[in-house]
Structure formats: structure tokens, C-alpha cells
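Schema walk-through. Below, the input block comes first and the output block second. Nothing else is stored per chain. Lengths vary across the set, and this one has 372 residues.
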Amino acid sequence: MVNTVAIMGTDGGVSFSASGFDNALAEVGLNTGNLMFQFAVWRQVLNPKVVVAPGHSPEPVREMADLLVIPAANQVNPAWDMGAWADFVEACDLPVLCIGLGAQSQIDGDPRLELQPGTERFVHAVAERSTTIGVRGTFTQKVLAHLGVTNTIVTGCPSQTINPAVTGAKVQTALDAFASISRPNIGYVLGTFEEPARKAEGHLAKLIRRYDHDLILQTDKRFLRLAFEGASAAESPDFLKWFGHVMRPDLSKSGFIEYVADHGRFYSDARSWIDRMRRHDLVIGMRIHGAVAAIQAERAGVCVAFDSRTLELAGTMGIPSIRADEIQANMSLRDIVEMTTFDAARFDQVRAVNTQAIRKLMAEAGCRLIPH
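--- output ---
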């Protein structure tokens, strides 16, 4: 029987002031979007629970916990070596519950990914200790199958379970209302301006200038530090100059730094992040958990999908989405919202199926769960 559960990550929040900026960013896995699914898993579990990380000593984890829970992200990523995570999972040698595991590739990419040895070892270490792994979608399932890992089920991301009151009808109402709001408030989820999405991101950055807006930041400590400490904390001037030229060519380097410092927002806790999204009429951008936060707040959230990770997860969870290559230079923000793919009935259906699958995995692993 499972008593204590060790959950990798956080309980859904950290303090950048108390832990120190770099330490807190490391705690959240260098991306505050991780807080969404970490919080979702944490709040479901009623067992005594502790937070652990790959940097922790595995011996006390093995002694005090009966189950290791991994609220996962896109760890199946050719660019990463997950050797440290593999070491931790192997050394703890506990039964594992892994939910939300995803693969990283380009849209319509080949599922036969060439992964680094540490990442392959991590995947197999998890699979060997899991009854079933909850994955983000069918593409990830195919990637894992090519590695010989077939004990998987599609669950999407646990973040879809946070607010049980969300319905497809509410999301559709928020999307429909956007066209009639004369001065909407926008949350623009800043991406990385990678080549596949650069034109679309540049166009969105241009469109939002005319509205009241926040730049919602999830990753890249150069931007997060600007939002946290202000313009005086600017670092990597050459990078900021390049980014500013691509995103806001109308501003000087110093003007762009001030712009990010003034408009940049990041959230160190999933709870306050979701609550804050209620002030926006639309949240849009390349990072799907920015859209998820808005949807869990019963607001309009749109994911601009530019890789397998975002497209797969948006499809699995029925999240409003549009592909980056569908956004054209002559489109207005209202045009983009109107072109967004969303089916309210399907949203409700897949959310119910995914939630049931997630809770079934957790219960079978021995977790006591909050009432559904």
C-alpha cells in the first residue's frame, strides 16, 4: 500500500525572492510553464507527499516514499541528455508514476528520433518501473514504441484537470466575445522566435502594440530577470539587441529593454497565474501552458502551434489552436482568433476521457485522490 508519495518538481509554486532567482528557476525546470502540471498533480494527491528533484540524494527518498511521481514535460527531446534524471530514477528504485511525457520534434516529424544515451536510459528506467506511462499524444506514443516502450496511454497534460468548472461552451463564448471588444486586454505569451515561428511571432508582436497587453514570460532567464529585477538587470546585450530588432524593430535596444521590463510578467505560482489571466480578454502565443492558464481561468486561450510538442498537446486536449504557418502578414488579431481551430463538444469529450485516464493511472499506482 502506498503511503508517502515523492513528487518531482514543485507543489505548483516557488519563491524567487526566498530561494534566489537562479535557484528558483532551477527548481521549476527553467520554465515556469512546468508549474501548471506540477500543481495539477500535487492537488490531486491526498497521500502524505514531498517534493524531490534529481539533485536530491536518492537514499532518503527511497526510505521515506513508496512511489515516485513524475509530472512530465517534453523530456523525450533530442537536444537534452536526461542522464541525471535516469541516475535519480534508478537510484531511488521506487515504483514510478509518470504522466504527461512528451516528445520534441518538428511538425510532421519522423517519430524515430535520435535521442542522447542518457535520455534513452531515462525513458527505459521509467518504463521498467511503471505499469503504464501517460503520454501527451499519439506522436509521443510512436516515438516511445520505436524505443521498445509500449506500456503507454494517451492522457494529455495533467494541467487540463485543474479547474473542473471549465467547459467547451465557456471557452467558445470567450472566443466569440473577442470580436466585439473594442479595446481588449491581451496576454502575449512570448516564445523564443525560433526560425519556424519567427514570422508569426513577429506579426503577433506587431499586432499587440495597439492594445493594453502583458508579455507573459515562461523561460529564458534574460527576460525573466528583466521582469523580476527591472531594466537595470539587463544582461547579454547582443542577444537583447538581436531579439529587439526582430520583435520590436521600432525600438532602440534600450527602449526594448525598458519595454520588456515594463510589460513583462512571469508567475512563480500556478494558482496566482491562473487567477491573473481573468483580466485578459485573450491570451495567445507559442507556449501552450500560457493558453492552458487562460482556459483554466475560463478565458480565451489560443496556442500558436509551431512544433510537434505544441501541436500534439493542443490536439490531445482540444485546446484552441492555430498553426504558426497559417498566420499571414495581412491578418488582424480578430482574423487570427476567427481562424482558430476549436470544437467545444470535442473539448469536453477529450477532457473527460483524459481526466479519467489520468485519475485511473494515479489510483492504480496507489494514490488517494481528491473527489472528482
